[in-house]
Amino acid sequence: MPWIPRDARRRGASLHEALRPMLVAAQVFALMPVEGLRQASPASLRYLQRPTEHILARLFNVVHAYECSPGGLSWLQLYLANEFPSAYHYIGFSYWTSAWLATINTAATFSWNYMDLFLILISLALADRFEHFNQDIARVFDRAVPQKIWQRIRENYCSLAHLAHATNARINKIVLLSFTTNLYFICYQLLNMVIPVMLPSIYSPYCYPESSSFHFSLNPSMLEMVYRCWSFAYLVARTCAVSLSAARVYEKSHEPKRLLFLVHPKSYGVEVQRLLDQINSDEIALTGFNFFSITRTFMLTVAGTIVTYEIVLVQFNNVSNAQESNMANKTFCSFEYY
Fold first, then answer.
1. Any idea where the domains of the chain sit in the sequence?
2. Whole-number Å distance between alpha carbons of 319 and 308
3. pTM score, two decimals?
């Protein structure tokens, strides 16, 4: 794998050594607070109990809030009210509450990103194990070798299959959470990009005061459109990265079949046939809580689901144009001082 240091690849790096650069990078974002990453054995890892901080700038919301602000620190209240409108509806506005919500939101955002990174690394590491196994078969499949060699190869495959099933049993809930979350936010961001085009009448290009409320412009600025496009592209790219990495496990685990059909006639025997039968019958793939298996064709299913739901959402918004307009003018556009 290209992200493993060259010297570690030469001596046969362990999974702990292979994941070390990414674990160090995760600590920058207050994730995986452990010590002992530079030790040779993962048994030396210890969790750290110390607070960490990170500031996540939401630039386009700050700019909008500043433009709508009448002056002073009112822009901060407008910004916070736009960030957590549902929460303030139930618990009321305060700066202490805002700080608490912002901390939770930041931690959740980085945990969400790291969850996908974790799945990518685990998938690549597991697929790399199968790749080494395939290389072992490629070295002997066209030669006459004793059955003991093929017995050892079959036993190695059994060990890898057990490792793959055990790994899937540990992370299949994370896989399900990752795909459902990414699917939701892809549809959400795509809808945010489509609605200004489909329903331009509900967007007002101005911020203006009305009694005790300040109305927030819904007309997307260039900064906001850049953010929406970048966020959508980033979500799609990250979902594709997770899908392709996880699908690589399925592909590499089934790759030996092609070579086993080409085994040297003098080597073909019971062990080769048992190995071939096991590969054909054993479904090795990462799953989303066993609801679905991640393969390349699964990506097409996800893409079709996104398109279907987006069409439904756009049609729903077209039908309820008047209701959306009223809601935008009364609720979504306005920020009240609590």
1. 1-53, 112-336
2. 17
3. 0.73
